[in-house]
Amino acid sequence: MGRSILCVGAVLAASTAAMLEARSGPSPCTLRVAPSGSLSIRFGRNIVGTMEPGLHDASWRLSTILPVRTPSDPKTGALTSQIRMQDGTACETETTIRQDGSSATAVYRITPREPVKLHSLHVALEIPTSVLAGGVYVADGVEGAFPEQYGEMIVRIAPTRDLTLRTKLGEELRLQFAEPIMTLLQDNRQWGPSFTVRIGPQMDAIEPWPAGKPLEMHITLTSPGGVKVEQDGPVTLEAGADWIPLDDTLEIEPGSALDLSSVLPWHAPAGSLGRVIPIAGGRYAFAKRPGEAVRFYGINLCFSAQYLSHEESDRLARRLRMLGYNAVRFHHYESELVDRSNGDGLTLRPDRLDQLDYLFAALKKQGIYMTTDLFVSRPIRAASIWPGETGDAGMDEFKMAVPVNERAFANFRAFAEKLLGHVNPYTGATWGRDPALAWLSLINEGNPGNFIGNLTPRLRADWIRAWREWLTRAYPDEARRREALGGVADSFPPSGEKAELVFAKFLAENQRSLLSRSRAFLKGLPCSAYLTNMNSWTNPIQMMAVRNDMDYVDDHFYVDHPEFVERPWQLPSRCPNTSPVAAGARGGLGCASLRVFGKPFTVSEYNYSGPGRFRGVGGILTGALGSIQDWSVLWRFAYSHSRENLFRPGAMNYFDMVSDPLNQAAERASVFMFRRGDLAPARNAIEIVATEADLLGRPASSRSATPSWNGLAWVARIGYASAPAKSDDPRRIALPLGWADPATAAGRVADPFATDAADTILAEMRRRSWLPAANRTSLDGPVYQTEKGELTIDAPRDTLTIDTARTAGGYAPEGERIAAKSVEISIVKTDATVWVSSLDDKPIGTSRRLLITHLTDVQNSGVRYGDRDRRLLLDWGGMPHLALDGAASVTIRLRDASKARVWSLALNGKRLAPVSCKVAGGSLIVPLQVNHEGRARMLYEVQIPPPAR
Hints:
The chain is of the alpha+beta class. It contains 15 helices and 57 strands. The chain has a 15-stranded mixed sheet that branches. A nine-stranded antiparallel sheet has the order 38-39-40-41-44-45-57-51-52, covered by helices on one side.
């Protein structure tokens, strides 16, 4: 991971379960006011939106108000803060929120300190699609709809004096302005799952807004159930009645219920069954067992966590195997490996190379396969790329230089040849020849669209040169070139629909050339690892032509990825901290549609990041999605960023499993669901047929490759195909683009990018009986249920149910139940993720050994947030970890329930104490309680002795 990314869940999502409850009257609306003036809008216990001042600069970069760590002077009645733009320009903000009977009045004043060019200066209300899609608005008496599925970005834009927002479940908020003001209703689903109501002037960023000129607005907020104003403020979590100290330990007890090395299939060393090979269906197998498909589940190691003593490497490799991992990604490995004395980043430090080689060998010995990127963050002096320049080449700058600057490409190649061509003394083979190195990505998160709009002058010159050279080759005739571009296209990147389409073709061919050139030199080393590239963020549809040339397709996703409020990678940071299940379980859906049918698909980075309180559901959701889609490899980001955390318990952070007991426990759900295959792949597939001619010959659009209906990835495999499957295949719905040859689109079920495509596709799935009549799948909610009912996501109820033979359970709020064939769970206290997994490969009902996991939330002692909803992180705190108290009851239908014995477990699998259980009707009833005599527990082992002979 190279930088903060836009991820699914980086906008507000909210549970709407309370909206389904029977009520005698409308729910009251609560405005929770932060010291900065930011408003959290709530109905019942659920956050349904936030409202705060902000702006878009001349590059459309959004800036919002900074947090205020102490309340303003109460005598003034105004809450003061700042909006700070990326160039350092500041706007002062004053916000006054007052209660007026059953309504509230918000008064805003936003004043730039100096002249500034803007696209908008505004107060914005951000509402998740799970709340507002399917609802209506009434603007100055005229009613309109918030569409269920994404169609156009702009829902409405006009001067407005009176605006009512109403969810499809009837929750209502009315905003009245003192005078008509420009109001934009925007559908953000091409970037994330939300709508925005943006109130304030929209500008062209040509004429600057004058320094000292305030934007003032008065907004009256009403709701049928009344509006109540309450003050928010910082909270600190400490051990007490709600937060229970959790004893952490890292080394798994051999033979314990948490030692998965005897539960999952293993072979060692890696490569002893031959190379990993692709087989039919976009799967992997081993060369000596080509008929047995295999999946890999692993972790990332970052920075100093890859540079250990030999003894430490052996310990770590053994532990990773016991945790169930069979894959590792080396990431951000270059900074310690490279000797910077000559500036070109090509001299490898012998001591660090020895450590990395030994770790490689130790992992290989344990049967663990590896991958890396040939460039992540290697430090390089700018003069090595641009003679005469000083300082370092920026990380993202070098990523973008490699495809267009020959010095950068030569440097990239030279490093790859040194790393992959040297002989590892502990394996006797070069990295490139070693079958344990199964996969390679060229450049981490290097999709050109990520950075093309924000290039340094020296890099911009390289790209403009490459663009002009390509234009001359593609359109030698100047008149044809002008016609294709719709004019001269002087700007860079070019603007205008026709020019942007041509530019997307250029970027695709540029990336195709990078892949081809890299493949050629790697083959000459030789290096046998499979190749991919472009694994994050910006994905215009033309890039699917490049993915057709890759050996496998890779992508990244995050839920609750931190947003840094003041400075990159420094506190304070924000995250939504709301239930992903209630939002329709969006994590990973953006990846799903990028798969190319017939090629393996991997996710080399994913996380439900800390300190989000719902991250415990991430393991079971991701394992389930990967299984339904029949992906090949998942790598959690990350196991550790530091050697300091690897062998002693440490405080949790954003990403590291080793210091986050909650997420480490959640990993086992992924291992069982995905690697062991407890959840079956979807039998049916929906494919967008995009031929080479469609994408690069006669393209009609450069839109994102991700369709609006990617939620159907929970019930069918989805992705792209470069040629149609058999027309009579009853298990595939083919959706040809038909851009190059409209005849190929004749008779198709739907235009894959039409506004109504989701409804049409779902109707066709039902017509084909892919979903039984009783199947609950509905885009209204949404609700997703797999063909055989093994998974159900009920967003309105905020519940997830997993119902497979070997793993059963899910997630639910306090007071809800999870019902599966072999397991029933009652969430007695505190929202929780709870599941039961067989440890002997047998169905739960006949298993002799089971693992029960009960996840509420885990935080650091003394962690400090700026608000009660814990969305603004101010201080991480430290050890010990604290688990949020909770209780649940698990009923397991067992063949020999009366013989069962149950123990609570330490985090290393050691049995702590027996648990008193009941047997009723042939079922074992296990009480789960986080707080046990003042110490927290979250894991339980059930053992049923075999029958006496």
